[in-house]
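I hope you will forgive my troubling you with a question about protein structure. The matter concerns a single protein, recorded as an amino acid sequence and a row of backbone structure tokens. Please examine both parts with care and let me know of anything in them that strikes you as inconsistent. Thank you for your consideration; the sequence and its tokens are set out here:
***
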Amino acid sequence: MMKITLFALAALALVLAQEDPTKAPVEIVKQDSEVDVNGYNFEFETSDGTSRQEQGDYKNDTEQQGLSVKGSYRYIAPDGQHIQVTYVADKNGYQPTEEKTTEPSQS
């Protein structure tokens, strides 16, 4: 009986893991990047509404030495919420700010 139960659970997991074949594949609709000795920046956007942008600057002063990063990303969660996270990562660590809405962001 235990083998049948394990087989049934494995088969159910396999079925649930299958992607929806009627759903169109996600495509990159925008992509840009620039890298130099002082830092970098990049951004991309996909056809499903996901996007990310980030800028990193090399700091070498009395306040901070190392990379200072600012950026954001957004996506639509499975429940339909529009999630946007803006962040800074510097000498004080990773500092995210999250916003959830039911409407698309206008940024």
Remarks:
- The helical segments are 2-17.
- Residues 2-17 form the longest helix (16 residues).
- Residues 27 and 47 are 5 Å apart (CA to CA).
- The mean pLDDT is 84.
